[in-house]
Structure formats: C-alpha cells, structure tokens
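This part of the workshop introduces the protein records we will be handling. Getting from the letters to the tokens is the skill we practise here. An example says more than a description, so a record of this kind follows:
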Amino acid sequence: MHIEPFAMERWQSEWEHSVSHNLSESGVHSMRVRELLGDDGAEELLTHGLGYGTSNGSDELRTAIARLYPGATNENVVVTNGSAEANFVSAWRLVEPGDEVVILLPNYMQLPGTVRALGAKVVPVPLIEERGWSLDPDTLRRAVGPATRLIAVCNPNNPTGAILSEVDMRAIVEAAGRHGSWILADEIYRGAEREGPETPTFWGRYDRLLVNCGLSKAYGLPGLRIGWVVGPSKAVGELWSRKDYTSIFPSILSDLLARRALAMRDRILERTRGILRANYPTLGTWLAARPGRFRVVPPRAGAIAYVHYSMPINSTELVTRLKDEESVLLVAGDHFGMDGYLRIGFGNEPEDLKKGLARIDSFFGRRSS
C-alpha cells in the first residue's frame, strides 16, 4: 500500500503553533474545559477513572449522538477518535481495489488519498464556483456508473463553506440509487452555519449511507478527538471491528466531556454562529476592498473562505512566503488540487484575525511597491 503525503495536515501540523497568526484553521477558536463543566465541575473530572473505555463509545454518548439523527439508535453509531478516523474506517470498509469513488471537489483531501491507497480510482466531480460552488447534476450522472462503489460529499463544504441545495442532495441520492452505490456524507461543519438554518443531514434519505461528523469544527472542541459514524447497524458493526485494529477506544475523559457537550449543543452552536457572524464582516470587508486582487463566494457555513487571488505566484510558494516573511499561516489551493486559491480561516479571536490580515496586506504592499 502506498500512502501519499497528506499535504495540508502536515503543513498545519508543522507550522500552526510557531506562527504569530494562524489563519489556516477551519473551525472557531476552541472552548475550554471550564465552559463544559462549569466552575464546580472539576471534581467530576478529577475523580473520573482512567481505565479502558467502551471501544465503540459509551452507551450514553452513542445514545446522545443518535438523538441528532431521527430514527437512529445507539446501534447505528460508532464513536471514533476524531472524524479523521471516521473517514478512514469508512473507506476501509467500503472501498476495494478497482472500485471507482466519485468525490465532489474541492473537498477535504483525506478521503481521496485514502481511496487511492486502497487501490481504487478517484472520479472527480467539480463544484462550480460561478454557481456558488454548487453541483451540476448532469456532470454527476455522467460520472456515476456500474463501477462506482461510493459517492463522497462534504456538506457543508470544506474549503468553500458552500451548502448543497435540496435539489443537489436529491441528485446525489438518485445517482447512487441507480447503481447501488454507497454515499459517504462528511457533515463535520453541520451546525456551523453563518446564515440560514442548520444544514439538512443526508441521514434518512438513503439506505446505503454513512454519515460522519464530530465535535471539532461546529463545536470548537477539536482537542477532544471525538468523531462518529452513523449508518446501518450491520455496517456500523463492521466499522467497530476495524476500530479494534486502529485506536481501539476513544479517550475516557473525551467521552465524558463529549456527553456534556452534546447536552448543551444548542448553546455551543450558538456560540459558534455568533463568532462566525461577528468575524466574517472583518474578512468580507477586507476582501471587498481589494477587488482586483481577490475573489470569493461568501461562505454560508464554517469559519473558512476559499479565496481566488490574481497574483502570478503558485499558491504553495505564496503561503510559504507569508509564513516566512509575515508569520501568518494560510492553506494553499494546491492542497485541494486547485492552484490560484487560498483558504483563509476567520474563526480566530477578532484582534488576531485583524492583525493577520494586516500582515497579509504588508506582504502584498511590498510586492506592489
């Protein structure tokens, strides 16, 4: 098995803690343990046993997750160490050498790398920027055929912040149903809408479906490393078997804190949406004031904007120079297979965001002087 480098994750891991302004993240600035437990909750944490946990997640946590998906029970849920493990074990369960996997792009690039490592072929279906990063159903229909094992979507989307319409979602389900393909719906940004209602889930629309999610992006709790897969009970049991070969069980303390987080889900998601509503005008105004340099479709969800730039420089070179010269970290469009773009995170503390954007201005000012 050949594992290709996961360029974006390595880039962030290497540099996000050493720059002055990290605008590479796709979530809001994180919550603290006290916000989950309250001032009097430390005793519960300090007296909690540190033995082995339940390998598919505690019954209480799986039940709390199942409540988010009408008709699901804890038998439809397996808890993973982050949504990255959810994506990996899902692909491991579904994809065989020689399969074709249709992936809506741009997308979080873990799945394409995993699919290729498993010996399958990635069939890209591009989202269309001119239509607000929406899907062309005709392109999807042509891409899906008898060899299509899986259709993979990220909704809301990373890196664009776009949300699929009901028409697009129905087109995906119909395309999968014609050939008995599976759908893998990465819904990690669901609940982090900047505008409009919560994004509809794919759950309940199709029987050969896995929905992956977790507490990192919409909840501001990436350090808990809690993710999950919701799907048919038989498939979920097979994913649990694969977890026996990977991380075995989620952290016992993370399981505890995740239960607390889901009990206060509405409050946490309102915190996230409040940050997005407060911060995006800073970035949106900054971009609008530079129309010849940047172009963006305003994101509807997530703390990310996928920005096209007009400067004649490769995106990896550009973000490297911004890191080295201005101590600002962004994500290159190259990391999504699309040069000429930048992913800019705006979920930081407000002053940090403003200072980071000022550093980018400083860089471009030197280039144009």
In short: The domain at 49-264 is CATH 3.40.640.10 (Aspartate Aminotransferase; domain 2).
